Every structure is written in C-alpha cells, then in structure tokens.
Amino acid sequence: MKDKIKPKYNAAQNVGWMVKIAWKVRKRVLFICVAMAALEVLYNLTQLYVAPEILSCVERHAPVGELLGTIGFFTLALFLTMGLKEYLREISMYPRVDVRSSIVGMIARKCNMTSFPNTLDVKFIKLKEKAHHSVQGNTEAAENIWKTLTVLLQNVGGFLVYLAILSRLNWMLLVVIAATCVVGFLVSRYSSNWIFRHRDAEETFYAKKSYIRKKAESVELAKDIRIFGLQNWLNELLDRIHNVYLDFRLRCEKIKLLADVTEALLTMARNGIAYAYLLHLALRDSLSVPEFILYFTAVSTFTTWVMGILQAAEKLHEESLDLSQVREFLEYPEPFRFEGGTAIPKADAYELELEHVSFRYPGAEEDTIHDLDLTVRPGEKLAIVGLNGAGKTTLGSLFYRRLKNTKPNAVYLDGDEMRVAFGEDIGYTHEERLRWAGRIFRVCKMLADQGIDVVCCSIAMYESVRAWNRAHIANYKEIYIRVKKETLLARNQKGLYTAAHNVVGIDLPFDEPQHPDLVIQNDGAQTPAALVEQIEGQLYPQIVEDPIDNRAYWNQYYQNKICPTEPSPFARYVGTLIDPGKTMVDLGCGNGRDTLYFAGLGLQMTAIDLSDSAITLLKQQPIPHVSFVCGDFVQQPAPHGERYDYAYSRFTIHSINQQQERVLLRSLYQTLNPGGKFFIEVRSIHDPLFGKGEALERNAYFYDNHYRRFIVLEELKAELQEYGFRIEYAQEQTGFAPYGNDDPPVIRIVACKP
Question: What is the mean pLDDT of residues 1-21?
Fold first, then answer.
C-alpha cells in the first residue's frame, strides 16, 4: 500500500503556478484551454437542440425553406465547431510542450546550480527523480494538466449551461441526479483504489507462481527433483499459490462487480425517476414533443457533465501531487548563500589555499579526505585520482553490478569477506590455504549448480585449485588480473606489502595461472570500466541465457493476418533524416512494409526477421537493393559481416529481454559506420497494455500469446550512451503510432555513433 502523500501545495496553488509559467512562456496555452472547453460545450449544446428544432418545424408544418434553413444552420454550426475543435487540438501540443520544456529547464538549472552538499542529500536526490518523472513525457503532469483543465472547464461550463436549461423542471430532480452521480463516482473510486492498493500483492502472486513453475520445468533441476521425489511437493505448492491467487482475484472481481451493480442500479434509478417525471409532464400537456426530446436528452447529458467534473477533479488532484513535488524540488533549501555578501575584488590571478579540510561520505565510518592542506597556485591544474582500493570500484564488484542488471540472481563473493564470515578457524599455512580455497570454490559450485551466476574474487594462489574449478564447475571462466610487483608495492592498499612475512608474491610463491580464459593487465593504464568492457567483450560477446523466442507466434501472425502495407509513421519520419545511396539494416522487418519504403528512397537494405513465414513471403518476389534474411537480429545484426550507415528498429527491442538488448547494442555499435545512426521506436511503460498478462520479469509480461517488455525512456538512453552512442533525439508521447482507435504513448530515439 502506498503511503499517503501530504503535498506542500494544493491543487489550486499548483494550477496558479502553472498559469503563471504559461503566461510568461506561452500565453496561447491558456486561451486554447478556454476556447476548446467553450467549443465543446457549444458543440454539445448544438447537438442538444438540433432534433427538437427540426421536429418543431415539422410539427408546425413550417415551409420547406424554413425546414431546410434550420437543418442547414445546425449542420453548419456542427461543422464549424467540430472543425475549430480539431484545429485547436492540433495546435495545442506545441505550446504545451514549450511550457513543459520551460519547467525541464528550471529543473536542470536547479541540478546544475545547487550547492554541492545537496548532491549527496538522499531527500534531494529522491525529489530530483520525482521531479524528472513529472516532466519526462507528454502524458506526465507538467504537460497533461492542460488537457485535464480543459476537460474540467468544459464539464463545469456544460454543467452550468444544462443546469440553466433544466431549471424550469423540479429542482429536486436535479438534486437526485447530482446525488446519484456523486455516490456512483465514490463507489467506483473505492473499487479502483482498492485494486490499486493491492497491486503489489498481485505482482507477488505472479512472481511466486512464475518462479515455482520455472523451477519445476528447469532442465538443470530435473535430476534433483526426481531423485528426491519433489514432483508432488512442487505441484502442491504451485496449486496452493494458484488457489490463493484465485481467491485474491475473486475478491477483486467481487468488489468490481459490486461497484458495477451499484452504478447500474443508480443509473436505472436516476434515469427512471427523470424519465417518469418527464413523461408525467408530457401526458399533462405541460411539455410538447420537441421539449420532451430536449429535456430527455439534457437529463442524460447533465449526468455526464456531473461525472466529468468529479473525474477531472480527481485527475487534477493526482497531477497536482506530481507538480507539488516539482515545486518542492525547485524550492529545496540551499545550504550555501549565493547572493549578497561582499564581492571578491577582481585580480589577474588568485591563489587557492585549503587548510585542515576533511570530508566523509554520508554513512561512511572513515574520512575520504582527512586534514588536507593544499595550495593551488595560478596556472596550476589539479586532478585527484584513485586506483583500485583508493575509493574506486574494483573490477569484480563493477562487473557484478553490470551483470546484476541482466541476471538478478547473480551473487558476488569476495575472498576477504568470506574469510571474515566463514574462515576464522583456518590459518595461513600451505595446507590451510588449500583447505580454505577448497571451501570457497565448493560454495561457488553449490551456487552454480542451482543456476546462480557467481562472481568470485579470490587470490586462488595454487594451480591445483584452479584445475579443480575447471573440472567441476560448469561454464567456469578464469580471469587473471595481472599486476606488476612495483605497482602492488606502490598501492599497498591493506598494508600487506610492508608486513614482515607470509605475503603472497613477496615471500610466498604464487603459481601464476597457466590456462586463464583472459589476462587483464591492471597497472592503471585503463579505467576499471574500460577493463570490465574488455572482459564482457572478449568472454561474453554473444552469450544470452534464456533468450526470448516469439518465432511461433509471429509465424502464425504473418500466415493468418492481413497486415498494413503502407509505411509506418515512424518510417516516414526516419525517411526525412536519411541520405539515398547509403546502407541500412532493418531489425525485425515483419512483412517488409518499412523495408520496401526505404528501398524506394534509394537505400541498400538488409532486412532481418525471426519469422520464416514472413521472410519466405518476401523472398518470393526479389526486390532490387533488398536482402531478406531469416534469423535472429540479436545474434546476427550483420549476417554477412557488413557495416551499415543506418540501423532501424520499430517495435522490436521490446520483444527481447534486457540481456539480449545489451548484446544487440554492443554488437550494433561495432556494426555501424562512424557517423551512423540508430533509429528506435518502442513501447513504453506508460502503454495501456503495461501490467497485463503474466509477469515474467521487470516490466515484462506474457500477454496475447507473446512476450512484451515495456521500456523506460531514461534507462534506454543510458544504455545507448553506455555503449558509446550519442543521443540526438529522444521523446515519449502519443501520436507517434496510432492504430485504429488506439494511440498509446511511444518512445522514439535517434542515436548516433560518433
């Protein structure tokens, strides 16, 4: 359950703050909101009167000219209001983006100009993350609030207008209508809030069920399950969790059903009372037929206005919470004063002197800098650096953290930490060192046998130990970090190399590895990050465990479904950014609609797709300048060793897991020519499909018979930059990939290889 948020500012204050920014940056936003709301009310009012007025003409036997004039007037009014609405809707996005961009700039300036202590403040960091989230896309509060205000204004305006129209009726009828709407809204909100509060429980059920199912079906554990007779136990466990989950879902459905039934009963009661009253008036000749139709329609629409006000107010409250966090971040107090005081006199040069300066990171037990005296004279440039053991991340821990991103069950074992935990009974003689090494690596084997990825950092000083590892640990890889003796003596991280005796490599022999999988020379010439890239690139360039394979689904899809043949909106956008005569690889080409479009623009195309059905159909009619390849674009982005000027991925990266994504980005960067561009369009976590189906891993679900992983914009940008790409364009919004009645928020990125 989420903690209750107590914002510093309420909705009215936040709306006022946004209005001030809009008035300064782009006044047109405000006028568009009011105009769109007014046009919506006018359009609805025109629809309300069109039928009664035409019927009144017919009833009065009005001349044909008057009848046609009435029809023409209402037709023209509907046409004009609809046209103006659509025009304002089209031009409204850019001013909204300008206002949001202004707030983005305010956040960036706060981040850049804030006092250094704030950069280490946990509260400041959390507020910064929340502020960035509130402005990162078109659907977030900093931009979407204008849509919400427009909806709220139009509903308030419609409510007032229709209240005036219905005022000649019994005022108790209006009270009943409004009261039933409020009760229905509250019941519906209770149902939605209950399900929202318990979504963590649902995700837990999914995770447990998925975990047990994977273990039960695991090839690695199949032997142990049968040896120990665990089949029935696993089945019972799975059934028990499944039953608990069903009970939970049943409770959700009961609450939702109760809300739906309540809403239906309230609607029946509301409409029944209203319509009975109107019929009563009509039968008493208090209402004409046109008036009956007018009020009959008005009562129903009045209900819509009331519900619209309640829903828009609720949405505005939610967005206000986000905006309040943005304001709290921008107003976060500065420990240092940047204004006032005495100005430093100008001079040609200054000498900077520090005396007795100490610094300690929050939570640390020791000072990183202690009692430092430093003088920096004019013209001097100072760099403070640290090798491994001097505050920098070690290779082992850095590699482990990167591995953890794709393998959540990875484990990091440090030899020194393990000795503290489990080795107090073992000394440092030859026999004891052998026994201790055996203990460490048997733990590694035990974990590896359970499917856990282990990163172990240990001296492993004997060749016999390493030979045992190679013989008994599956998929064992040995990385030898080689350092010159002089470097070790210079670092002397733990004071070992000034010890009197029993120092490996000084007075104790060290069996240098004879058959390592990789040798890393770590004398400080390369950064730890560069060395880890070397390890990943040489030992694990294309290794993907448990890859996602939707081959069967897409084969059936392209066999049985008629797909669009015109180029996608994304392809048309990319078409404006490319030069004819260059080469492009289409990663996951599908039915080839975009590939053929690019070929028509003069590109030499290589199109890859896992579906042999799709590729077979495309190869039936050879097309100049296009090579169709059936294969895995993760493993083979360049099937024949080519290099490309462009790479194109539309709705394909979200069809692979994160480990596959990292492999693809690494290999694709090598495949592109310098200056080459990578065009990406992908589903985001704000997609309406997010959360539907069986949860498989973080942000990934099995729904509609295939795998989907929903992408976080900032995370994908960070990964691209990590592998060397420069981000030229990145945006998340609706309007990028409309399909029928669906228009989900979609991420677009243009990345360049420098």
Answer: 75
